[in-house]
Amino acid sequence: MKTEILFCCPKCGNKHVLNLDDEIDLTEDKSKLKSLLDDSYFSFSCESCAEQSVVEFPFIVKDDKANFLYKLNPNDEMLFLLKDNDEREIRVVKNLNELKEKIRIKYFRLNDHVVEYIKKLIKEDIEKNNNVNVEEIYFAKYEDEKLHFVLFDKENYLGVMTYSKSGYIKIFKELKEKIDKNLQIVNLSTIDYLF
Ligand SMILES: [Zn+2]
After folding, report:
1. Cβ(53)–Cβ(61) below 8 Å
2. Are strands 68-72 and 89-93 parallel, antiparallel or unpaired?
3. How far is it, in rounded angstroms, from Cα 173 to Cα 150?
C-alpha cells in the first residue's frame, strides 16, 4: 500500500507530499533490506534546498519465513495488532533505530527479550562505573562470537561494548521459561519483568 506523507523540510520549511510504500515484505525479496538498515529507504532530499532528511512514518516490515511483523509507530497511535491465532513475532517500535535493531536481532537469530536484558545489564554497569548517562544503546551486530552494542549519551556517541555469545546463551537458558511471547513492546523500559 502507498501512503501519503506530508513532509516539512526542517531546513527551509517547504512542504512536500511523499508517496511511499507503508509496508515491505522481505519474505521472498530481501533487496530492500540494505536500504532499510542504512536509512536510505527513509531519506529524502528537499526539492527546494536539497537538504537530506530522514523521515519516520507509520510503517510495517515483515518476513513470513522468519515469522515476524514489526510495526514502526512513530506517532504513538493506539494499536491492536495481535490476533489470537497469530503465531508471528509482532513488535511495535517507536523509532527507526529500534526498528533496525529488531531486524538485526532477528536475522542474527537472537531473542530480543534476552538482548534487551543484556542491554540493561550493560547500561547499569557503565553508569555505575563511569560518570555517564547511557541514553541510548542498540544492538549493532554479531561478530567474533560476540554481540556488539553501540552506546550514546544525550549528545554523543560513547563507544561499543561487546557481550559474549556464551553469556548470551547462559542468560537465554535462565530466562526462556519466563519470556512473555505476547509482549508486543520489548525494549529497555518493558524488560524489568525479567529481573
Ligand atoms: Zn528544504
Report:
1. no
2. parallel
3. 25
Are the C-beta atoms of residues 58 and 77 closer than 8 Å to each other? yes
CA of 52 to the centre of ligand 1 (A): 8
Q: Name the residue among 168, 125, 129 with its Cα closest to residue 146.
A: 168
Q: How far apart are CA 37 and CA 100, in angstroms?
A: 6
Compute the distance from residue 7 Cα to the ligand 1 centre, in Å.
10
* Residue-wise pLDDT tens digits, 38-82: 999 999 999 899 999 999 988 999 999 999 999 999 887 766 666
Going from the Cα of 53 to the center of ligand 1, the distance in angstroms, rounded, reads: 9
- Expressed in angstroms and rounded, the spacing between residue 158 Cα and the centre of ligand 1 is 31
Q: 20 CA distance to ligand 1 centroid (A)?
A: 19
Query: What residues does each domain of the chain span?
Result: 2-107, 112-194
Q: How far is the CA of 177 from the centre of ligand 1 (A)?
A: 51
- How confident is the model over 148-174, as pLDDT tens digits? 999 999 999 999 999 999 999 999 999
* R_g of the chain computed on alpha carbons: 18
Torsion on CA atoms 148, 152, 156, 158, rounded to nearest 10: -50
